[in-house]
Amino acid sequence: MSWLLAVLIGHLLNAVSFVLDKVLLTKSIQNAYAFTFFIGLLGLAALGLAPFGATFLGIPGFNVIAFDFTIPTAGSLLLNLIVGALFTLALLCFFLAMRGQEATRLVPFVGGSVPVFTFVFEWLFLDQRLSITQLVAFGVLVIGTILITLDLDKKAEPDKPAQGAKGWVLALLAGLFFALSFGLTKIAFEQQNFYNAFIWMRLGSFLLPLLFLLSAKHRIAIYQAFSLFREKAGFLYLVAQGFGGAGFIFINYAISIASVSIVNALQGVQYAFLLLMAIIGSLKYPKLLKESMSRRSLALKVFAVMVIGFGLYLIAQSQVYA
């Protein structure tokens, strides 16, 4: 399977997971620490999908019976755990920022900053250079991502000085941690086989949220959130994490064989899928998704999809391989 097709499938699956997570975060789990804890916990479910994803993707040297699972060297193990921990930390910063900052401004900021930070990381530490066409495609995709996440219908409310500063700092940290996680993921895949590195990364994503249990406040929130699994929302949460875990496998596979900055720049594709789902879903559940848009806002998002489509065309033409 080509890396570009893997990215598209991954973002489609992530879009489904995002919609379900949005409903759950709004209606069921209000605490960002509790939500991040369960994402880290159920992220281990992705391990069960890894063999099937690896087989479907046709990863060289993968054997369904002998998974080639080994304990890596101390350096590689530490790298894998750091990658997983950074990704979970980025999620936590993002969720915390969403609680104290206007999503109208935060989502475009994070969506645009991640590929830029990743590009700098790739330039400095991976010694990879993009061609002129690839650089243009990168810029086009970042612009498309920012445009599609803008909300022209909602006026941003002025932030309280302390809350506003904290929200932007958290958003900046989220973008930086996401970029570091993806950049180090590329290095990990260059040192180890896909399946082995993927497993140990997920372990890192699981171990970090365990630290939340040291806080009595977070322990209570996490304990209360467990009641979710005794309700119908519990099944929805498991489904959401299943889609997210599968999407994560596809995205990681793409990172393992392609330019990590280009893969991250394709984040706008996920928003395009989200737009399509929102339009379809709002026809039947307008109050659930809350995606009512004016003609001006819809026109901007359609234009953004066209921009992203042009970026995809440039990428397909250039065939960016690491």
Automatic annotation (TrEMBL):
Q: What InterPro entries does this protein's entry cite?
A: EamA_dom, EmrE-like
- Record field: transmembrane: 6-25, 32-57, 77-97, 106-126, 132-150, 170-189, 195-214, 235-262, 268-286, 298-316
Gene3D superfamilies on file? 1.10.3730.20
- Is Magnesium found in the keyword set? no
Q: Which organism is it from?
A: Candidatus Kerfeldbacteria bacterium CG15_BIG_FIL_POST_REV_8_21_14_020_45_12
Please give the superkingdom of this protein's source: Bacteria
Keyword annotations for this protein, in alphabetical order, are:
Membrane, Transmembrane, Transmembrane helix
The record places domain EamA at 2-149
Write the protein's name. EamA domain-containing protein
GO annotation, cellular component aspect: membrane
Keyword Transmembrane attributed: yes
Which Pfam families does the record match to this protein? Answer: EamA
